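Input:
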Amino acid sequence: DADVTQTPRNRITKTGKRIMLECSQTKGHDRMYWYRQDPGLGLRLIYYSFDVKDINKGEISDGYSVSRQAQAKFSLSLESAIPNQTALYFCATSDSSSSYEQYFGPGTRLTVT
Amino acid sequence: AQSVAQPEDQVNVAEGNPLTVKCTYSVSGNPYLFWYVQYPNRGLQFLLKYITGDNLVKGSYGFEAEFNKSQTSFHLKKPSALVSDSALYFCAVIWGTYKYIFGTGTRLKVLA
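Output:
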């Protein structure tokens, strides 16, 4: 969905490096989410934010942090990357005033060597 | 514990035949149920949802799903499959006020 963009689209980094994944949206939605996708495990929620001042941990937040710089921007950081953080990462948005469906960005493929 | 199950990793169907992708859930309270589709190198796209009302819901690309409360199921269906329907399909449920739980995904392969 072009309304939700993620940068970079692909990234290879080394163990121990800090890396930031960025998400921007033009949908005007108040809620934003970060997921990771691993084969056979589906999508797992890392962090979610219901507005700029409301950030919450998801089911697998260890090793990650986030920043909601504005309603339209939500960044995910890996403070010290490790190989088992190799995955496909998705940002998503939703509108609290409508019907709950989420809108996903195209994903960032992260490889930690 | 709240959960969503997609019992089939892959479903193969011939083009023109009906298709079904299965989903069962376990949540307390009234579930909000969703189907999403993921094409290669793309994010997930919303297909359809059940919030309340008619148990048969219709969505994008000719897909529909039936909510069955007694069987706690929400199977995705399409009367006539197309090769272009080949993709990864995810069932999801919201429990509480906001938490999404996704299934592990089912790969649909439509054979020409």
